[in-house]
Amino acid sequence: FVVRHPPPDNQILRVSYERYLFNTNAPSIDADRRTVSVGEATVSRSLPDTITTWVADAVCISPEDGIGVSEKEARITVFQNFFVEHNVPYSVKRGEIAHLRMAVHNGFQRTMPVRVSLDEEVPGSMRIVEEGEAVQSGCVAPGASAVFVFNTTFAQLGEVPLVLSAQEDRSVECEGVGEPDVGTSSDTVRFDIRVIPEGVQKEKTENRYMCGQDGDEATFSLALPEDIVEGSERAFITVSGDLLGPSLENIENLVSLPFGCGEQNMVRFTPNIFVLKYLKGTEQLTRPLSNKISNYMRDGYQRQLRYVQRYEDGSFSAFGSRDPEPSIWLTAFVLKSFAAASEYIDVDQNLLQNSVSWIAKNIDPETGCFQNIGTGGAANHDSSVPLTAYILAALYETKEAVPSLNFSQIEQGDDQFSSAINCLKKSDAKLTEDSTYDLALKVYTYVLTGEHDRNPELGKVAEELEKRKIEENGTIHWETRGDSGLSLNVETTAYALLALMKMSPNPDIKEQINKGIRWLVAQRNTNGGFVSTQDTVLALQALSSYAAQVYGKDYDLQVTVTGTGREEGEEENIQINNERKMLLRTLKAKVPSEVKVKMSGQGCAIVQSNVRFNVESEGDNVSFALELNPDGCSLRRLDVCVTFLGPEQESNQVILEAQMPSGIVPDEFQLAQEEKKFPNIRRSEIVPDSNTVNIYFESLSKDSRQCLTIPVSVAAVVDNKKPAVIKVYDYYCPCRKARAFWDLEACNEV
C-alpha cells in the first residue's frame, strides 16, 4: 500500500537509509508465560520520507518449535508529494566552480510556485558565484520536476555542510496554482560536499620508541616545504603505550595501497593473527576486542577464497582464475596464515591439506629445491634458494599450527623436510655472494627448523649476516637495496630479528633485538603498517613477538608533550597505565613547530608525528614514463601510455591509479571491456570512496610502451577544473613511480 502525506514544515532529512529497522520484540503471552495468547507483536515507527519502498520480514524463535521465518515479505511504500533532491559531484577541489543541480519534485495535481535556497552552515565556507543566485524561484508543473542550478565555489577544505530548502511561495506568479491541499508544502535537506585541496598529497612521519625508566626525551620537528598548497597543512602527534596499538587502531588499512589481488588482501588478514595471539598471550584480550578481530579474520578468509586457483589442489594465485597458473609462493603464504588462523576461526582443513600436497609435488627431485611457479613476493630471484627457504619456513609453521596435516610427501623418515634443507645448505658455500635478504631468510629458516642448533657449521651463515648489520643513531638494521628498497629492508630486518628472538638469549642478542625494534618502529607509516604487503606482515610478526617477550603489567607511564597548543610552552600530559596501554591518543599540533616529548615513570610508548600537506608537483623516480592523451584530450576518455624503464628486464606488479577530475566518473562497463584487450592486465576496479580507477598489471617489459583507454563521462558540471593526478608505481617499491596531471580545461567537447 502507499502512504501519501505532506512533511512537517522545515523537516530536515539527515540520513539516507538502506536498513531502517532491526529490532527484537516479544509477542503478547499469557500469565503463566508458556503459550502465546495473541501471537503477534506491533511496532510503530515513522518511516523516512520521499519515495521509498520498504521491505520487511520477520524471524521468530520459540523454545518448543525452534526458528520460524515469515513466508512472505511485507512491503510498504512511502510517498512525499513535495520534496527536494540534490545532485552534486563526489568531490570538488578548492577554487573550482561547481554547478550544483537541485531538483524540486511536485506530486500534486496543480502547479507549485516555489522558492529554493542553498545555504552554508559554516559562514565563509561556500560562495555563490552569481549575486542573487542563493535564492531562486520558479514554477513546477503538476506531476513534474524542475531543476535549479547553484554555481558555487568553496574556500574551506574537508566536509562542508550545506542546507537546501524548497518551499511553496504563493508570491511567485504561476498559472494553474489552485488552492493548497494541506497547508503550505516545504522540504529541507542537509548534505555535505567534500572539498579537497589541489595538487599532490604528501606526508612526513616520524616514529620514536621511548621509555619512562630511561627518561627518554625527543624533539619532533614539524616542518613544511616551501611549495605547499596553501591551507592544506595539518599535523598530529599520536601516543600509544603498546607496540601494537597503532596497528590495532587501523588493522583494516595498514598500508595506503590498493587491495585488489590475492597477496594484497593478505595484509588485511594475517596481521589480525599476530595481534590476537599477542593480546591473548598477555591477557589483554577482551570479549568485544576478540569478536572484532575474529570478524575481521573471517571476512579476510572469505575474501581470500576468491583467489583459489584450483580448490582440488589447494593452489592460489594473485588474481585467482584470471591467472594462467598458480603461484607457489602465494600458496605457501596463504597456507601458513590459514593454518595459524585455524586456532581462532573455522578454516577448511581439506583445503590446507590440498595446499600441502600441491606444494610437495613441486620439489625438484634432483636438487631438493622448490620450483618457482607463478609470480609473487617482493624478492623474486633467478635463484630458487630464497623461495625454498620461504616455503620451508611456511611448511614448518603450518605443521606447528596444525599437526594433524599429512606431510609425508615432503618428509623423509625422521628428517623433517630434509631435501629442502639440503638445497639451502648447498648454497652456503658462496655466502658472500648471497644478498642480505637471502641470508636473513636462510638464518630464520635454519633457526625455525632447529637446524641452527643441530648443525654448528650453519653458524657461519648467522656470522655473515651479523657482519652486514648497519648501526646508526642507536639502532641496527639490514639493507638489501639501499634507500630505494625500504620495503625489502624492512622485510630483511624483520627476518633477522625473528631469528635472533628464537636463538638462545644472551645480553648481546637482547641488545641487538632492542636496537633493531627501534629501527623497525621508526619505519612505520601513519596507519601502523609499513610500505607493502610482505614487509608489513613480517614487521608486525616481529613486533608482536618482541612485545610479548617484554610485556609487563606494572605500567605507570607519564608522557609530557610540549608545543602542540596555541600558547607557547603549553603542556599536555598523558597518563598510561595497564588499562590504557592499547589506547591511541591523538593530539593536533601547530605546523610548522617543534614538539617536545618527555617520558617518566615505568613503561614504554610509541610516539609518532605526522605532517600532511599538498604540493603542486613533485619529482619522481625514473623507473617509469607516463604519457597522457597523446592524440588529444577528450571529455569522454582518458588515454594513458606507460613505459617501464628498468633497470630490470621485467617489472614487479605495477599499479596505475587514475584520479578522476571533479564531475567526471569512469564508465564501469566499458572499462571492463577495455581490460580484456590486454593479457597482462589482471584486474581493473573503481574505488568509490576516492573516485579513482586502479588498473593492475602483472608486469611490464622494459622499454615496452603500453597504451590503454579509461572511458569516462560527465556526471556534474564543474568549471575552472583543477588537474587530477595520474600515477603509476611498483607495488613492492612505491618510490619507483611516475606522475602526470590530467588537465581537462583544454579538452574538446567530444
TrEMBL record:
GO MF term (any one): endopeptidase inhibitor activity
A GO CC term assigned to this protein in UniProt: extracellular space
Keyword Disulfide bond in record: yes
Pfam families per record: A2M, A2M_recep, TED_complement
InterPro entries, per database record: A-macroglobulin_rcpt-bd (IPR009048), A-macroglobulin_rcpt-bd_sf (IPR036595), A2M/Complement_sys (IPR050473), Alpha-macroglob_thiol-ester_cl (IPR047565), Alpha-macroglobulin_TED (IPR011626), Ig-like_fold (IPR013783), Macroglobln_a2 (IPR001599), MacrogloblnA2_CS (IPR019742)
SMART domains on file: A2M (SM01360), A2M_recep (SM01361), Thiol-ester_cl (SM01419)
Keywords on record: Disulfide bond
Membrane-spanning segments: none
Entry-linked PANTHER family: MACROGLOBULIN / COMPLEMENT, PREGNANCY ZONE PROTEIN-LIKE PROTEIN
Protein name, UniProt field: Uncharacterized protein
The species this protein was found in: Cyprideis torosa
